[in-house]
Amino acid sequence: MPSGYVQTALSESDYKDLSNEFGLEVALVKAVMEVESNGSGFLLKEASPARPKILFEGHWFYKLTPKPVSKSRPDLSYPSWDKSKYKGGSSEWDRLLDAMAFDEIQALKSASFGLGQVMGFNYPAAGCASIQQFIEENFAGEYWQARHMMNFIVNNNLLDELKRKDWDGFARGYNGPGYKKNNYDTKLEAAYKKAL
């Protein structure tokens, strides 16, 4: 994993720059980050340089790797989304590192990273040429994590939904069809109101 980065948090000036570049209210940018990562792209309890916040998604690892992984490590590879498999915090990195022992690239593609929790397999939509670039930029700082999130929003035609505060439409496109299970749309609206 990359190391040696100076991981600065986003400043108010950075938020304003993103807001101007993408034509969004600052509160909308902050709302997505708040819902996805509680407003921080790094594991704050770790000494600097900290690792990016991640969630390892075993159902994606199942889809991206040969099925025998699921037989030997059902905690890492399973056919459908299962919230009970999450360990949270630095334990998610333990899961990712265990999965990387089976298939490094597919494991990295099976985790969501940083402020916007963009999935590794979405690295092209995040504006990266490779999964390696995506990972390195996630370690480099919240500025890059924010750019990944905004590029993903633009490249998935979700910018208009966010601008219009179409919470359902944005939630469906950004979080997937099961967004209602976690009240993603209502959390997003509440985070927006809080950020005003």
Number of helices: 11
The helix/strand series, from N terminus to C terminus, equals HHEHHHHEEHHHHH
Quaternary class = single chain
Query: Quick check: average pLDDT?
Result: 94
Q: How would you classify the helix and strand content by structural class?
A: mainly alpha
Uncertain runs with pLDDT below 50, 5 residues or more? none
Fraction of helical residues: 40-55%
- How many strands, which pairing sense, and closed or not: the largest β-sheet? 3 strands, antiparallel
**Spatial strand arrangement across the major sheet:** 1-2-3
Distance between the termini: 37 Å
- The general outline is globular
Using the CA coordinates, give the radius of gyration: 16 Å
Tell me what portion of residues adopts beta-strand conformation: under 5%
The total count of strands amounts to: 3
Write up what this structure looks like.
The protein has 196 residues and is mostly helical. The protein has a domain at 7-41 and 141-196. It is built from eleven helices and three strands; from the N terminus they run ααβααααββααααα. It has a three-stranded antiparallel sheet. Strand 2 and strand 3 form a beta hairpin. Helix 2 (26-37) crosses helix 11 (184-195), helix 7 crosses helix 8 (142-155) and helix 10 (167-175) crosses helix 11. It starts with 11 loop residues before the first helix and ends with a helix.
